[in-house]
């Protein structure tokens, strides 16, 4: 509960802190360090283990931060750390259309630098306009580092040898450079005076605790300075919260793990919860909190409380919660009408900004927030979405994908969800491709690779079936037969001459069809095609040598206008240079008569 005194019915709530970063860069270790030190620092036991979040009161932060945080400078009650790190949970935890976390720690391994999930996290932070600090973690992993547990970082940097310090700084400057590439001006936190305009970088080690005092001091200072206004909430008003997780709890049935970020919730309150279909209207049967560590008995880890005030984590037991969704809003009705609150919940669910198109892929995700994050990344990759929904991949999704004509849209992208067995079989039967991953950028990468492979296959197919440009000359003294069919010796001047094509010649600006290329024979053997510079005997149905065609004539393969368009457009780069040149000459002939031919 907030510590400050309510003067006018409002109170200052705890800022909510999220931890993001690439896998293995130290998010969990950092949270463990904060929680572990908080428990040690707080021997009286004011640290409350919360559902899904850990509340660290200001006096405990001050103690952990050594001399860096003077509690009299602050009136915010502390910090509430969300226990599940990673941008998946960050995206899941929304409030009123924005991010639930008020502030974030972006963890970057100083020895490993920016990685794909670092970039992804930055995109999400930028999109949600969430202020953040960078924890440049694992400074102790730099060779030769000398540690002093839990010490502020500047003194530790000074205590290293020149070589170690310069190795650490190299990593730090790389991170600052990468932040700049991502559009953020950043610097060592002690050089930053305006944290709104600049990102502070805190060198640290979650393992040894070095720099942790600095990190807490920066978080606290930033919150006090820039978030204080937003932290003013009416703690007597009806609660607003977000579902973290829907879980089964023995003795209580389906329960909601939730973070309350506004107002208060009491046992017995009527609540509205966002769900897969219609919002659920129900009544709170019990509010549960973990028992303090010392009191936990294995069969009874929770105790019931009468009331929870923002910002806090709580487990809510109530009837009929089966359809509730992670990431969905929770509202206490209070003295408003159920209809108005239901409408508000419905509106918030709809505000999940997934834009769908007439054609595109089907996407499924485990929570609203992750659905939105996936949709955002797809939009950036210019991949259209036809249908987006929270939940496992079900037969209905396969039906939707099955209505698509383009091969690349016959796809379902599933993020962090299961594929129901019958859907998998159904998808296989109908040639629908399923992509499953629990890392967004990998999911998109796999899909893009697939699209590229089908585009290549399609292009090959088109190249097979399209009329290829060719011009060839009838050689002097090489008439083997005058007609029915005419058989003459030719040399290809440019392009690829293939059997079965229609042949034209240019008389002035008009193309005249002279016949049909029946066969190509090279030293008595039938061949399918002849390339530039090659000679062979060809038989042409239609003309008579000496009348429609003459020795020395240049003849062309007739290109239908539709084919010309494709050749001149999407296939131009695929054509060998001689074919491209021949195509241009052919187009020039046509366009001297009709400038828009084949366009
Ligand atoms: P997460 O995937 O981001 O949650 O990363 P973890 O917290 O699980 O850390 C990944 C690995 O890095 C673990 O083996 C940690 O012990 C190690 N690690 C995390 N922080 C530090 C640190 O500050 N220094 C060192 N040397 N190792 C660390």
Helix/strand layout:
Elements: E1 10-12, E2 16-21, H1 27-41, E3 48-49, E4 53-57, H2 58-64, E5 78-82, H3 87-92, E6 94-95, E7 98-99, E8 103-109, H4 116-127, E9 132-137, H5 153-159, H6 162-181, E10 186-188, E11 199-203, H7 212-227, E12 232-234, E13 240-249, E14 253-262, E15 264-266, E16 270-273, E17 280-283, E18 286-290, E19 302-305, E20 307-309, E21 312-317, E22 329-332, H8 338-350, E23 361-365, H9 368-380, E24 385-390, H10 395-402, E25 411-415, H11 421-429, E26 433-437, H12 440-465, E27 470-481, E28 486-498, E29 502-507, E30 510-522, E31 525-527, E32 529-531, E33 535-541, E34 554-557, H13 561-568, H14 577-591
Parallel strand pairs: 2-5, 2-8, 8-9, 9-11, 10-11, 23-24, 23-25, 25-26
Antiparallel strand pairs: 1-12, 3-4, 4-5, 6-7, 13-14, 13-22, 14-21, 15-20, 16-17, 16-22, 18-19, 18-21, 27-28, 27-34, 28-32, 28-33, 29-30, 29-34, 30-31, 30-33
This protein binds guanosine-5'-diphosphate (GDP).
């Amino acid at each position: 509960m907030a510590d400050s005194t309510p003067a006018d019915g409002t109170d200052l709530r705890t800022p909510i802190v999220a931890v993001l970063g690439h896998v293995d860069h130290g998010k969990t270790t950092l949270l463990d360090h904060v929680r572990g030190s908080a428990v040690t620092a707080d021997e009286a036991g004011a640290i409350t283990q919360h559902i899904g979040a850990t509340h660290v009161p200001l006096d405990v932060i001050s103690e952990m931060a050594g001399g860096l945080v003077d509690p009299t400078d602050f009136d915010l009650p502390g910090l509430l750390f969300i226990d599940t790190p990673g941008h998946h949970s960050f995206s899941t935890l929304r409030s009123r259309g924005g991010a639930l976390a008020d502030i974030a720690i972006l963890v970057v391994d100083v020895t490993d630098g920016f990685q794909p999930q670092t970039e992804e996290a930055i995109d999400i932070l930028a999109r949600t306009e969430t202020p953040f600090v960078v924890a440049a973690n694992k400074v102790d992993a730099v060779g030769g580092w000398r540690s002093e547990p839990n010490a502020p970082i500047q003194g530790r940097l000074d205590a290293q040898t020149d070589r170690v310090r310069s190795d650490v700084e190299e990593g730090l400057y790389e991170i600052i450079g990468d932040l700049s590439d991502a559009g953020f001006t950043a610097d060592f936190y002690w050089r930053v005076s305006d944290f709104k305009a600049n990102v502070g970088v805190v060198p640290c080690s979650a393992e040894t605790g070095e720099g942790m005092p600095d990190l807490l001091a920066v978080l606290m200072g930033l919150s006090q300075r820039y978030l204080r206004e937003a932290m003013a909430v009416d703690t007597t008003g009806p609660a607003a919260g977000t579902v973290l997780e829907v879980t089964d709890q023995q003795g209580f049935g389906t329960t909601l793990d939730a973070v309350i970020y506004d107002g208060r919730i009491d046992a017995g309150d009527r609540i509205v919860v966002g769900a897969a279909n219609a919002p659920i209207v129900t009544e709170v049967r019990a509010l549960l909190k973990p028992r303090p560590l010392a009191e936990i008995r294995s069969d009874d880890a929770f105790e019931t409380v009468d009331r929870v005030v923002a910002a806090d984590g709580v487990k809510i037991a109530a009837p009929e919660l089966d359809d509730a969704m992670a990431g969905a809003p929770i509202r206490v009705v209070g003295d408003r009408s159920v209809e108005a609150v239901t409408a508000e919940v419905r509106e918030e669910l709809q505000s999940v900004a997934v834009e769908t198109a007439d054609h595109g892929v089907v996407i499924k995700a485990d929570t609203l927030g992750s659905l939105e994050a996936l949709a955002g990344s797809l939009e950036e990759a210019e991949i259209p979405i036809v249908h987006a929904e929270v939940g496992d991949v079900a037969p209905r999704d396969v039906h939707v994908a099955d209505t698509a004509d383009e091969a690349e849209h016959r796809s379902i992208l599933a993020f962090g969800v299961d594929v129901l067995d019958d859907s998998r079989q159904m998808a296989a039967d109908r040639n629908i491709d399923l992509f499953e991953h629990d890392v967004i950028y990998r999911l998109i990468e796999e899909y893009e690779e697939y699209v590229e492979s089908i585009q290549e296959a399609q292009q090959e197919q088109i190249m097979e079936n399209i009329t290829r440009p060719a011009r060839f000359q009838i050689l002097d003294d090489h008439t083997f037969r005058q007609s029915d069919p005419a058989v003459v010796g030719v040399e290809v001047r440019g392009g690829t001459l293939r059997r079965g094509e229609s042949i034209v010649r240019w008389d002035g600006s008009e193309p005249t069809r002279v016949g049909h290329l029946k066969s190509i024979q090279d030293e008595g053997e039938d061949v399918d095609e002849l390339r530039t510079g090659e000679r062979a005997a060809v038989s042409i149905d239609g003309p008579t040598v000496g009348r429609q065609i003459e020795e020395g004539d240049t003849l062309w393969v007739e290109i239908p206008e539709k084919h010309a368009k494709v050749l001149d457009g999407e296939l131009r780069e695929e054509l060998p240079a001689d074919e491209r040149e021949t195509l241009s000459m052919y187009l020039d002939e046509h366009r001297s008569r009709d400038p828009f031919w084949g366009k």
